[in-house]
């Protein structure tokens, strides 16, 4: 079916709600997206009809719960082009997935003098786990610079790569700038020096088509809630040969083969990395979100997002004293900006009062803010259900804020 934003909006019950008596204009999608009725129904349906623990029961509900959970794993694998559903580990989100790689893959391998290359646009989730592991191993963190337009400086990154670099970890799509990185090139650069590439796919899932085999990344970290799914669930894709070599990160039920007091042997992946009762309903909701995204005309969606980016950039560019951070020509519809007549924290409550939800702050990217010499920005971020009219409402609300603050 061709892309139709109004038809899509009708699937999201929250979008017809009001805040402060005004129609909701939700432009905080990079923080979390809303959920279509199909996802809500999948979660309610699980608890209403199928609820049981997975993998260890011999009764009908346990079988249904296990089937639903494992079917969701298959959906994630297919959605990202993974060769095998066993290369997908359910995690609580991107943060958890990056930590899993940092502790189970990187820590046993890294030694003093090794390097981890990050970029200046990383979310704290793709910085702090590496710092913790670097402190334990003596490895060093190096950050690749970005340009004034907010694009990764690939030549500078290339120059940082040598045999000391064991891991390159980078955002596919920046949550603050909207920049879409050239991940194929990143994979070939990392592999050129024998390093592995971890991609932070938190923002990519909703905005760009993903094919891990085509990109050639070694690890991909995902959060369902950034792409129409529930919170508290995400996934790590890892190349099967890497996952197979990784020791467990958390111990508990489900991840074992045989337990005795002197010695425990571990299950094969992905179970080895899913200790304890997993977020079963979350996984089922994640699968439903991917079904929903798969049903959307992706070319139509890409065109819609390009149009929103162009429209938003033009209208915001006409607001006096407004400066946009992140001007990559191929960026996702994320608008971070400052105003020379007000602090971001003074603007957001006025916008909120007019029903317009945006985010203010450092967006968990403090090194990026430092790079631009800013303490904070206002960020308006779009999803597939965002309309031009909502951008118009943002512009009107900014006009009102200016009247009050300038
Ligand atoms: N990476 C990026 C680029 C993000 O935008 C976010 C969330 O804002 C994260 C990582 C962390 O995701 P989560 O909090 O779902 O683990």
List the main descriptive attributes of the protein structure presented here.
binds pyridoxal-5'-phosphate, seven-stranded mixed β-sheet, 406 residues, alpha/beta, four-stranded antiparallel β-sheet
At CATH level 3, the topology of the largest domain is Aspartate Aminotransferase, domain 2
For the record, the count of structural domains works out to: 2
Hetero groups = pyridoxal-5'-phosphate
Low-confidence stretches: none
Task: Note the beta-strand portion.
Answer: 15-25%
Distance linking N and C termini:
46 Å
Largest sheet: 7 strands, mixed
**Whole-number average pLDDT?**
97
Structural class: alpha/beta
Question: How many helices in DSSP terms?
Answer: 15
Label the CATH architecture of the largest domain. 3-Layer(aba) Sandwich
Radius of gyration: 22 Å
Strand order of the largest sheet: 4-10-9-8-7-5-6
Helix content: 40-55%
- The CATH superfamily of the largest domain turns out to be Type I PLP-dependent aspartate aminotransferase-like (Major domain)
Shape call: globular
In the CATH scheme, the class of the largest domain would be Alpha Beta
Quick one: how many beta strands? Answer: 17
Describe the fold and architecture.
- Helix 7 links the parallel strand 7 and strand 8 (196-200).
- This protein has 15 helices and 17 strands.
- It is globular.
- The chain has helices spanning 5-9, 37-50, 60-80, 94-109, 128-137, 154-160, 183-192, 204-207, 212-215, 240-245, 280-295, 298-317, 344-353, 366-371, 388-405; strands at 18-19, 22-23, 25-26, 88-91, 115-119, 140-144, 165-171, 196-200, 219-223, 234-238, 256-259, 264-266, 322-325, 334-339, 356-357, 359-361, 377-381.
- Helix 3 (60-80) crosses helix 11 (280-295).
- The longest helix is centred in the first third of the chain and has 21 residues, at 60-80.
- The chain starts with a helix and ends with a helix.
- The strands form five sheets. A seven-stranded mixed β-sheet has the order 4-10-9-8-7-5-6, sandwiched between helices. The chain has a four-stranded antiparallel β-sheet with strand order 13-14-17-16, with helices on one face.
- It folds into two domains: 5-29 and 296-405, Aspartate Aminotransferase, domain 1 (Alpha-Beta Complex), CATH 3.90.1150.10; 40-294, Aspartate Aminotransferase, domain 2 (3-Layer(aba) Sandwich).
- The protein has 406 residues and is α/β, with parallel strands linked by helices.
- The protein binds pyridoxal-5'-phosphate (PLP).
- Pyridoxal-5'-phosphate (PLP) is lined by residues 30, 93-95, 123, 125-126, 171, 175, 200, 202-203, 223, 364.
């Amino acid at each position: 079916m061709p892309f139709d934003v109004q038809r899509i909006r009708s699937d999201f019950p929250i979008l017809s709600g009001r805040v402060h008596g005004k129609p909701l204009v939700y432009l905080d999608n990079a923080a979390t997206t809303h959920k279509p009725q199909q996802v809500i129904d999948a979660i309610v349906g699980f608890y209403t009809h199928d609820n049981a623990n997975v993998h260890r029961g011999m009764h009908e509900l346990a079988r249904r719960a296990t089937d639903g959970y494992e079917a969701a794993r298959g959906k994630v694998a297919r959605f990202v082009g993974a060769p095998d559903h066993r290369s997908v580990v359910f995690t609580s989100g991107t943060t958890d997935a990056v930590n899993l790689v940092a502790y189970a893959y990187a820590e046993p391998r890294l030694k003093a003098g090794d390097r981890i290359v990050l970029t200046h646009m990383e979310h704290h989730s793709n910085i702090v786990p590496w710092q913790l592991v670097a402190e334990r191993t003596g490895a060093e963190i190096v950050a690749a610079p970005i340009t004034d337009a907010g694009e990764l400086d690939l030549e500078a990154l290339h120059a940082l790569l040598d045999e000391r670099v064991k891991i390159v970890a980078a955002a596919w799509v920046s949550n603050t700038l909207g920049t879409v990185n050239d991940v194929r090139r990143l994979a070939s650069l990392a592999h050129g020096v024998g390093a592995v590439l971890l991609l932070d796919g938190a923002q990519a899932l909703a905005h760009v088509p993903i094919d891990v085999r085509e990109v050639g990344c070694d690890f991909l970290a995902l959060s369902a809630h950034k792409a129409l799914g529930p919170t508290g669930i995400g996934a790590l894709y890892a190349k099967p040969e890497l996952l197979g070599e990784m020791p467990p990160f958390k111990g508990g039920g489900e991840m074992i083969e045989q337990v005795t007091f002197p010695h425990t042997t571990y299950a094969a992946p992905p179970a080895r990395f899913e200790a304890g009762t997993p977020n079963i309903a979350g996984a089922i909701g994640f699968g439903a979100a991917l079904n929903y995204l798969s049903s959307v005309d992706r070319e139509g969606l890409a065109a819609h997002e390009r149009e929103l980016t162009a429209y938003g950039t033009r209208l915001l560019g006409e607001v006096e004293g407004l400066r946009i951070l992140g001007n990559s020509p191929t960026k996702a519809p994320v608008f971070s900006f400052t105003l020379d007549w007000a602090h971001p924290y003074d603007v957001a409550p006025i916008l909120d009062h007019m029903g317009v939800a945006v985010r203010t702050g450092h967006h968990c990217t403090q090194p990026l803010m430092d790079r631009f010499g800013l303490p904070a920005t206002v960020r308006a971020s779009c999803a597939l259900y965002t309309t031009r009219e909502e951008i118009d409402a943002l512009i009107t609300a900014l006009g009102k804020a200016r009247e009050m603050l300038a």
